[in-house]
Amino acid sequence: MKTPFNIYLYIGFILLGSYQALMNKDYMQAVASFGIGLAFDPFDQQQKWNERPTWQKFVLYLHLAVVAGLFGLTVGLNDK
């Protein structure tokens, strides 16, 4: 089975964003890392969106929700 390089980049940016959010408490950098990770779709990019399984759509929507939530948290914490 040939694994595309995108999955390694995706996982790498997820791990980097998690480290930045949980260990360093640098939420803006975590938002950037998670957002960049979303650009590297770990699933088959030749498959159209409507033909993808529901669980793949759910994973990508959940990822987008994490990015939006962290961005809201960052804006809320820095609102003075």
Describe the overall structure.
The chain is mainly α and 80 residues long. The chain contains 3 helices and no strands. The longest helix is centred in the C-terminal third of the chain and has 24 residues, at 54-77. It has helices spanning 5-22, 27-39, 54-77. The model has no long low-confidence stretch (mean pLDDT 90). The protein is globular and about 45 Å long.
The H-and-E topology, N to C, reads as HHH
Q: Structural class given helices, strands, pairing?
A: mainly alpha
Strands, count: 0
Overall pLDDT, averaged? 90
The N- to C-terminal Cα distance equals 52 Å
Share of helix among residues?
A: 55-70%
Give a quick precis of the structure:
The chain has 80 residues and is mainly α. The chain has three helices and no strands.
List the helices and strands and how they pair.
Blueprint: H1 5-22, H2 27-39, H3 54-77
Helix pairs in contact: 1-2, 2-3
List keywords for this structure.
3 helices; globular; 80 residues; mainly alpha
